[in-house]
Amino acid sequence: MSLSQETLLSLYETMVKIRTFEERVAEIYYEGKTPVFDIAAGPVPGEMHLYSGQEAVAAGVCAHLRPDDPVTSTHRPHGHLIAKGVDLKAMMAEIFGKDTGLCHGKGGHMHLFDPTLHFGCGGIVGGGIPHAVGAALAIKKRGEDRVAVSFFGDGAANIGAFHESLNLAAVWKLPVVFVVEDNLYAISVPKSASTAVRSNAERGAAYDMPAVQVDGQDVLAVYEAAKEAIERARKGGGPSLIEAVCYRFRGHFEGDPELYLPKGIKEQWKQRDPITILGNQLKAQGWFSDEQAQAIQDKMTALVAEAEAFARQSPYPAPEDALKHVFVNV
Amino acid sequence: MAERLLTTAKAISEAIAQEMERDDRVFVMGEDIGAYGGIFGATQGLLEKFGPERVMDTPISETGFIGAGVGAATEGMRPIVELMFVDFFGVAMDQIYNHMAKIHYMSGGNVKVPMVLMTAIGGGYSDAAQHSQCLYGLFAHVPGLKIVIPSSPYDAKGLMIQAIRDDDPVMYFFHKGIMGLGWMTPNPRATGPVPEEPYTIPFGKADVKREGSDATILTVSLMVHRSLDAAEKLAQEGINVEVVDLRTLVPLDKETILDSVKKTHRVLVVDEDYKSFGMSGELVALIAEEALDYLDAPPKRLAVPDVPIPYSRPLEQYISPSVDAIAQAVRDLVAE
Amino acid sequence: MTPSVGIIANPASGKDIRRLVAHGSVFDNKEKVNIIRRVLRALDAFGIPHVLAMPDVFGLVLRALEDAQVNLNVDFVDISLTNTGEDSTQAARRMVENGVSCIVTIGGDGTNRVVAKASRDVPLVPISTGTNNVFPSMVEGTLAGLAAAAVALDVNQVRERAVHRARKLVIAREGKPIDLALVDVVVYDERFVASRAIWDVEKMRTLVLVAPHVGTIGASAIAAYLPEMLTAQGHGAWLDLGPDGRRVLVPVGPGLIAPVSIRSLRWLEVGEGGRVLGAPCVLALDGERENPVYPGQDVIIYLSEEGPYVVDIQNAVRTAIEAGFFVI
Asked: Which of A218, B41, B285, C26 lies at a CB distance of 3.0 to 4.6 Å from B9, suitable for a disulfide?
């Protein structure tokens, strides 16, 4: 499968969709929270962790996934879910806590579940990694060629669940791909202070699985690495580990003053905007124009606006609904 | 026709085997549950019958394999995962109470986790502080887990089949002292009649194991046996004790509890878990809220004191509710 | 002028998708730290007072210094890290400007390639790490350090006797040299650099070799296992690949043996080469995709004898032994 014009345009669209969604959510998030920041106030209360800057990883990996390939994600899930093909309206409504949201307002931004896309996420670092192993276990038992993918960060690569999951996946030779999004910081702690090895790709050897490090800002590099890993898993070749080095353009959470970052590094990172990088690659091939770029941007702006309108107009769940859905049946 | 007498361990493994035959989505995972048949015999015979694909021995990776159970369940399988000792929950509690218990709720009811997490509880044989706990109170406290605690072979089979068929996450606690293990202190109540055909016992239905009128004992697990033994002693003294085996803490059979209290007017909770902030306190609160006027005496609790479980036999005997201690507590209750 | 030795260690580990397909091993950074430490101790033992090193985000040299217990001074060149091959080129440029006697490189073909862009007449002491390398040698770090010390002190005219100039392939666009390769260039039928690795033999259109090496693994193997290569020492080679040619079955990657069809083969003398046809395509230099070629661009590849200077480590040590360098 070569990198065709169609593929590249699709990757471009996905990244723009994610960026547009995230930047709009950022604006909405601050509504009602000024002049003094009150985390509980406004239409989108609570914490918010946005994916801007890391779009190439979600787009490059999910391009190879089918709707029924299970994906587990993290506290920073929007990019993965959008790349997987979620209905933006239902997702936005969930972020607004509305009854029409993916989880009827029960989960919110960090606990988005879409069973039609076999997607789950949560706020416990590393919590979803074993779930991907379990999904892969179910796939293997049924003899299917689906693949499970687990996205998590450089911080999660140091928690027990990561190590146990990689070992289990290798011992049982499961169709799962582990994707470490190394954005160089776990909240405020740089990777050099947290991780004994210099690249998590080195950890693949500890669990007898192929591992690779790629430039996470270059969607084509991610695309190629993911293609090999996912195809390998589909054919019964077992698990792989991909470390994608990427940049988080916004803070760990919205409101993060990022005092721990070295001066000027943000500006340096923004020089490597994955959308711009792909756009330039497309233009160099004569496959893209500024008009096309604008058309795509307009399309995504409209889609996000539609989702926002839907979310705002949707009703909240009834307060007593808080007592529902503990069990399937009591 | 002679009744079939099975140990609790055999009853559990039979339940699992019958469900595995009926439904190929059911599989078992855990440490030493395959070739060994489970350290406490709960999975004996399963590997020979179903093979290693469906009866999987795992590495020592509780977060990994309990989490994998959650993931497989969300993908439509029906895993039974064994946590060897409940005391080991600490290394995997996140997967249990933040994921297994909550994914259904957080997804607004859209995702199901039809998983059984079974685990061995209880002491009395000098396995000390890290291998003798009960802890069901801790798990009953967090919303989203059904808590099942059989005391007899008959109940064990029916409740296990129910657990496997239930679409919710179920924690199933089997006491080591009721399993009928050859290497444990013999316990006649660990063996009992079990029908061959599959059957279920609904959750949220306590079982009055012995009827009485003078006092109610509310209890679970091994303490059911000790309460029954105490009741036999007390019967000879003219005190008739009703022993209510709760069987499930979540859901809780409030009706049977309150009916019994309204009948006897005196209640003793016997609990092998730590006394404070657990099952015994919960039951007393329930009775105080809903049946206060029916009591002729304050409710009594006999539980393991708030100390880690000691090793030395006289020390452990002291802290675990004995038959004599139960009988004395009832006498004190009735005397008030 | 006080003798000074440069050290450039390539920290890039795992940046090679072939490890997903071809079961290669990972030469981890811990091993690199060990090698650097040995080099430092050898230099120190023979009185080299100064080392100039390339900084890297993994701190390889800093970590080597931790337990090295050496007296020499280590300074780091002042470059802003891009975490690409450009860092090594920049570092080499600075080292040359600062007058180092030689540069010890620790890495694979790729590392030496980017260093060679700027090393000029400063000889390299190449220590091999990484998968299937042709240019650097699998030599123990201490030994390489001894050779570097001998070169720094110019013992027994070692700089004339044990240093040779390697050949290279020059890539020129519109007449201007834009890049070089020390081992081979593959014209690869893909438009993008992407993950850099080349692994799909079907997409290789042309292979240009500096020199055939018996027993190599990689794209060069396509030529190296032809019987005529055994007698073709001293020549470069240009092979056009494609269907209906002469078929070989060769190791194109570690554990990856594939059939390849060769349509034509010609030897290259110095100065000879050819034009890149089939744009859009990508040129892979020494095993990594590097330069996209767009339709309409005039790109040629030719063999040059003006490659980097390289220390023959065994020879350098022998030359030093001859002069009693090791007798104190």
From this structure: B41
Residues 6+ apart with CB under 8 A from C12: A213, C107, C110
C-alpha dist (Å) from residue C268 to A59, A128, C208, C233, C273: 44, 57, 9, 11, 6
CB A200 within 8 Å of CB A157: yes
What is the dihedral angle through the alpha carbons of B164, B166, B168, B169, rounded to the nearest 10 degrees?
-20
pLDDT digits (tens, 9 = 90+) for A59-117: 999 999 999 999 999 999 999 999 999 999 999 999 999 999 999 999 999 999 999 99
Amino acid in the structure at residue A178: F
Task: Tell me the CATH number for domain C168-304.
Answer: 2.60.200
Is the Cα torsion angle C28, C31, C33, C39 positive or negative in sign?
Answer: negative
- The reply to whether A330 falls in a domain is no
Answer yes or no: do B108 and A138 touch at CB < 8 A: no
Chains C and A touch, contact meaning at least 3 pairs of CB atoms under 8 angstroms apart: yes
Structural domains of chain B ordered from first start: 5-193 (3.40.50.970), 207-335 (3.40.50.920)
Please list every residue in chain C whose beta carbon sits closer than 8 Å to the beta carbon of residue A243: 14
H or E segment and range at residue B324:
helix B323-335
Distance from CA of B204 to the nearest CA of A (A): 8
User: Which residue, among B101, B136, B108, B138, has the nearest Cα to B120 in the 3D structure?
Assistant: B136
**Could you tell me where the beta strands, DSSP code E, fall in C83-146?**
102-107, 124-128
A138 touching chain B per CB within 8 A: yes
* A243 touching C (Cβ < 8 Å): yes
Query: In the complex, which subunits touch B with 3 or more CB pairs below 8 angstroms?
Result: A
| Residue A213, domain extent | 5-323
pTM value? 0.88
Cβ-nearest to C20 among A2, A223, A229: A229
CATH class in words for C4-166+309-322: alpha beta
Task: Please tell me the distance from the alpha carbon of residue A20 to that of residue A275, in angstroms, as a whole number.
Answer: 11
| CA distance linking residue B103 with residue A213, whole number of Å | 32
pLDDT tens per residue, range B208-251: 999 999 999 999 999 999 999 999 999 999 999 999 999 999 99
- Give the DSSP H or E segment for C273: strand C273-275
| ipTM of the shown complex | 0.88
The boundaries of every CATH 3.40.50 domain in chain C are: 4-166+309-322
Domain with CATH 2.60.200 in chain C: 168-304
Q: Which residues of B are catalytic?
A: 131
Contacts of B91 (CB under 8 A, 6+ apart): A160, B62, B63
Q: Which DSSP letter does residue B20 get?
A: H
Structural domain includes residue A329: no
**Any alpha helices (H) in A31-128, and if so which ranges?**
55-62, 78-84, 88-95
Least Cα separation, residue A259 to chain B (angstroms)? 31
At position C284, the amino acid (one-letter code) is: A
Q: How far is A292 from chain B (nearest CA, A)?
A: 38
User: What is the tens place of the pLDDT at every residue in C135-174?
Assistant: 888 899 999 999 999 999 999 999 999 999 999 999 999 9
Instruction: Verify whether the Cβ–Cβ distance B168 to A131 is below 8 Å.
Output: no
Q: Of the candidates B177, B220, B215, B178, which has an alpha carbon nearest to the alpha carbon of residue B327?
A: B215
CATH of the domain at A143: 3.40.50.970
Q: How many domains does chain A have?
A: 1
Determine the residue of chain B that is closest to A118 in CA distance: B75
CA dihedral C188→C192→C198→C199, nearest 10 degrees, is -100
Q: Do A101 and B108 touch (CB under 8 A)?
A: yes
Which residue of A lies nearest to C19 if distances are taken between CA atoms? A210
Asked whether at least 3 C-beta pairs link B and C within 8 Å, the reply is no
Q: Does A328 fall in a domain?
A: no
> What pLDDT digit, counting tens, does each position of A140-178 carry?
999 999 999 999 999 999 999 999 999 999 999 999 999
